[in-house]
């Protein structure tokens, strides 16, 4: 990707004069779109989703947005320690969650945690992962933005990033070996594509021809590093070609387009057609995380431009266009979601930390004698009240 | 002397050495436009330009490997990882190339590279961000490993590292970056590798530490002073090469030792120190040597649980009472 192409994405999105490339034309260089700027859907690419699915997508995208907003606030108030947002990128995780079946597996990267909510994971338990307290099925061991749950087949990424991609391919390979019909979706950011495991995953996916969909969320930034400094390829999608993996570049802020492209890829994988690599062109509207201040390295105009392509706004325009949503319904939806999220936070926040003896569980299948000893030592000494073991700040 | 924060001392060392030697460059994630994940390289991109302060694509094995190649043919790279944890992705480059090229080329090639990053516990960043990576690297012949606890040592040792012709791994600590201390201004001030420092004189017991735990050990020493126990705190500063004589000297004086460091209790730097002391000063010891480390589990995220895993002043004080046979 050349430096000027970063800005050029915007033009590609805004130029209604050029017809949107169809999936069959240079799909890894073009940009697959459904939603037009006036809120209508391009009949040539429209997946024809039912009003029910569209409204469900809208509700889920809004829920993620509202959770993110609350969590950033809680972080600033010191009520949780860390948060990372999906803001601006909701279309891809939500559409993916909607197309998957119960037995499918998900290996998210930084910003796709919320897929598990779409797949039925309870909100309270999800919120508890932000607090890492006694309500958390991960027992207070994992950072926020690394949400996971066995109940919904979602595995957290390792903080040392990109290693989830070979796992996704491996899980898909196992499905193929076992001849079950499950499909696996793995995610990576634009920055993550530079890690060796991106190569490993695509190479194995192609060679083993596994039922896997690998998705790159190209949000244009890796902390302060623009995508143009990450790769010299014209697009991320085109990288799939070299591995023999069919690849598509899609407007990642167009939930209908993502639903169609991911849905087709999942269906193909399920029917034995092999892997797909998908680049979702989107934008990180918020900071990298609660520890970041993006005003130091990127222009507000760029953020403002992308705010006009906010995936939630675009879907709302479509729903209004089709007469599926009015202002009163929008208000009621928002109130309902706020109430649901507020109640979950209130209940979860009241819980204490996980019991200290749980520290020694799950290191091994069975508690070895030396950890039993350490557990006894911890339990027999007074509770720790200190801050970070002294020393330094 | 100037009072500098630890991060400023690290920066000052890099700036001085880059001004002194045009072959030195800095590469890593977020070192340029962002001024460093922990603002260590603040102002350096402006000062030296993008040819010498380089934002790399996200691939630790990539920019480590590239820098090893550049070092072999005459450049002197400083590689920053956002944390030492991410060096795991570059482990093969460090273990099989940086450490071995001099020896396996029959001494024809060498790799004058500095790898530096924050190391050890931070706060609530989860286990995959909380490793004490020095234990893995000190095992490797061909590498040098430093872990300064003060701004002066950070500057002096980093300058020594950049001037050194072998690969040097430099362990900083996120929780020390704001610590202030007096730092010599002399551009030729270097702290030689392989020399420990007595951080606090004492006669009853030796608490041996390096990096952040030196400060925890000093807090423990202050607690113990109230009970009339006079603890000496030894700051190793350099883990490989290791200052054996300093270990012998302190044990000759106090006859008891407690080690404290981050990382797990199995093996590691602590096992090495215990071995040296028992081998070189067995007759001086009046008690077994104890170690205060992380608990033997991956670091939890929850703030309360994290406190139980970290070495704490009270845990160190308890160990000291035990080697003094004063435990209730
Ligand atoms: C191996 C490794 N190196 C560096 C980091 C630090 N880091 C965390 S997120 C990030 C940027 C990720 O960018 P991208 O993949 O585009 O994902 P995004 O944040 O944009 O969602 C970096 C460098 C890390 N977590 N792991
Ligand atoms: Mg990105």
Secondary structure: elements and pairs:
The complex is a heterodimer of chains A (393) and B (328).
Chain A: H1 3-14, H2 51-76, H3 91-99, E1 105-107, H4 115-118, H5 123-131, H6 164-178, E2 184-189, H7 196-208, E3 212-218, E4 221-222, E5 225-226, H8 239-242, E6 247-251, H9 255-270, E7 276-281, H10 300-307, H11 311-321, H12 327-349, H13 369-380
Parallel strand pairs in A: 1-2, 2-3, 3-7, 6-7
Antiparallel strand pairs in A: 4-5
Helix pairs in contact in A: 2-3, 2-11, 2-12, 3-9, 5-12, 6-7
Chain B: E1 2-5, H1 6-20, E2 24-28, H2 44-48, E3 53-55, H3 60-72, E4 76-80, H4 91-98, H5 101-104, E5 114-118, H6 134-137, E6 144-146, H7 151-163, E7 168-172, E8 180-183, E9 197-200, E10 205-209, H8 213-225, E11 231-235, E12 238-240, H9 244-254, E13 257-260, H10 268-281, E14 290-292, H11 303-309, H12 313-323
Parallel strand pairs in B: 2-3, 2-4, 4-5, 5-7, 6-7, 10-11, 10-13, 13-14
Antiparallel strand pairs in B: 1-8, 6-12, 9-11
Helix pairs in contact in B: 1-7, 3-4, 8-12, 9-10
Descriptive notes:
The complex is a heterodimer of chains A (393) and B (328). Chain A has two domains: 3-349, Thiamin diphosphate (ThDP)-binding fold, Pyr/PP domains (Rossmann fold, 3-Layer(aba) Sandwich), CATH 3.40.50; 356-384, no CATH class. Chain A contains 13 helices and seven strands. Chain A has helices at 3-14, 51-76, 91-99, 115-118, 123-131, 164-178, 196-208, 239-242, 255-270, 300-307, 311-321, 327-349, 369-380, and strands spanning 105-107, 184-189, 212-218, 221-222, 225-226, 247-251, 276-281. Chain B has 328 residues and is α/β, with parallel strands linked by helices. Chain B folds into two domains: 2-183, Thiamin diphosphate (ThDP)-binding fold, Pyr/PP domains (Rossmann fold); 197-323, Rossmann fold (3-Layer(aba) Sandwich), CATH 3.40.50. Chain B has a seven-stranded mixed sheet with strand order 3-2-4-5-7-6-12, with helices on both faces. Chain B has a five-stranded mixed sheet with strand order 9-11-10-13-14, sandwiched between helices. In chain B, strands 1-8 form a two-stranded antiparallel ribbon. The longest helix of chain B has 15 residues, at 6-20. Bound molecules: thiamine diphosphate (TPP) and magnesium ion. Magnesium ion binds next to β4 of chain A. Thiamine diphosphate (TPP) sits between chains A (110-111, 159-161, 189-192, 219, 221-223, 284, 288) and B (29, 58, 60, 82, 86, 89).
């Amino acid at each position: 990707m050349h430096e000027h192409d970063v800005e050029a994405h915007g033009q590609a999105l805004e130029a209604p004069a050029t017809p949107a490339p169809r999936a069959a034309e240079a799909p890894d260089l073009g940009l697959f779109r459904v939603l037009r700027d006036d809120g209508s859907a391009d009949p040539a690419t429209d997946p024809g989703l039912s009003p029910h699915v569209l409204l469900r997508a809208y509700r889920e995208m809004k829920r993620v947005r509202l959770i993110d907003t609350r969590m950033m606030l809680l972080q600033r108030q010191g009520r949780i320690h860390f948060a990372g947002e999906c803001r601006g990128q909701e279309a891809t995780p939500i559409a993916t969650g909607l197309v998957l079946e119960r037995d499918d597996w998900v290996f998210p990267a930084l910003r796709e945690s919320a897929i598990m909510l779409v797949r039925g994971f309870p909100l309270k338990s999800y919120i508890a992962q932000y607090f890492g307290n006694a309500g958390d099925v991960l027992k207070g061991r994992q950072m926020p933005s690394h949400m996971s749950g066995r109940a919904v087949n979602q595995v957290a990424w390792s903080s040392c990033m990109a290693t989830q991609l070979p796992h996704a391919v491996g899980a898909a390979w196992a499905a193929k070996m076992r001849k079950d019909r499950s499909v696996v979706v793995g995610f990576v950011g634009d920055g993550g594509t530079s890690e060796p495991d991106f190569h490993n995953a695509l190479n194995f996916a192609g060679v083993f021809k596994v039922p896997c969909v690998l998705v790159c969320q190209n949000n244009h930034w890796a902390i302060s590093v623009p995508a143009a400094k990450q790769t010299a390829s014209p697009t991320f999608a085109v990288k799939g070609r070299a591995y023999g993996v069919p690849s598509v570049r899609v407007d990642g802020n167009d939930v209908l387009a993502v639903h169609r492209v991911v849905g087709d890829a999942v269906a193909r994988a399920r029917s034995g057609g092999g892997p797909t690599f998908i680049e979702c062109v989107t934008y990180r509207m918020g900071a990298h995380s609660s520890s970041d201040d993006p005003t130091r390295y990127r222009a507000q105009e760029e953020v403002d431009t992308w705010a006009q392509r906010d995936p939630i706004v675009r879907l709302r325009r479509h729903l209004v266009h089709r007469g599926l949503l009015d202002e009163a319904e929008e208000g009621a939806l928002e109130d309902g979601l706020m109430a649901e999220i507020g109640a979950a936070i209130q209940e979860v926040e009241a819980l204490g930390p996980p019991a200290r003896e749980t520290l020694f569980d799950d290191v091994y299948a069975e508690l070895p004698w030396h950890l039993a000893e350490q557990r006894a030592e911890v339990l027999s000494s007074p509770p720790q009240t200190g801050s970070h073991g002294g020393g330094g700040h | 002397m100037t009072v500098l924060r630890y991060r400023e001392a690290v920066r000052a060392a890099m700036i001085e050495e880059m001004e002194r030697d045009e072959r030195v460059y800095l590469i890593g994630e977020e070192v340029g436009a962002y001024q460093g994940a922990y603002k260590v390289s603040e102002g350096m991109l402006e000062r030296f330009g993008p040819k010498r302060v380089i934002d790399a694509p996200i691939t630790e094995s990539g920019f480590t490997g590239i820098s090893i190649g550049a070092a072999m043919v005459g450049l002197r790279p400083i590689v920053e990882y956002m944390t030492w944890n991410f060096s795991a992705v570059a482990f093969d480059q460090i273990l099989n190339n940086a450490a071995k090229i001099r020896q396996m080329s029959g001494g024809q090639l060498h790799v004058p590279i500095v790898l530096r990053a924050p190391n050890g516990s931070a706060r609530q960043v989860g286990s995959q961000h909380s490793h004490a990576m020095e234990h893995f690297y000190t095992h490797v012949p061909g590498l040098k490993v430093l872990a300064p606890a003060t701004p002066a040592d950070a500057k002096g040792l980093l300058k020594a590292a950049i001037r050194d012709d072998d690969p040097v791994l430099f362990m900083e600590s996120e929780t020390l970056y704001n610590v202030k201390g007096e730092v010599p201004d002399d551009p030729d001030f270097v702290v030689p590798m392989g020399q420990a420092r007595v951080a606090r004189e004492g006669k009853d017991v030796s608490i041996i530490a390096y990096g952040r735990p030196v400060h925890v050990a000093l807090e423990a020493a202050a607690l113990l002073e109230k009970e009339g126990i006079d603890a000496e705190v030894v700051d190793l500063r350099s883990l490989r090469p290791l200052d054996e004589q300093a270990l012998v000297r302190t044990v000759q004086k106090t006859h008891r030792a407690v080690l404290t460091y981050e990382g797990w209790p199995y093996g590691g730097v602590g096992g090495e120190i215990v071995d040296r002391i028992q081998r070189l000063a067995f007759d001086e010891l009046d008690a077994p040597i104890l170690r205060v480390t992380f608990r033997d589990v991956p670091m939890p995220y929850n703030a309360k649980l994290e406190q139980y895993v970290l070495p704490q002043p009270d845990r160190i004080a308890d160990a000291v009472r035990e080697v003094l046979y004063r435990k209730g």
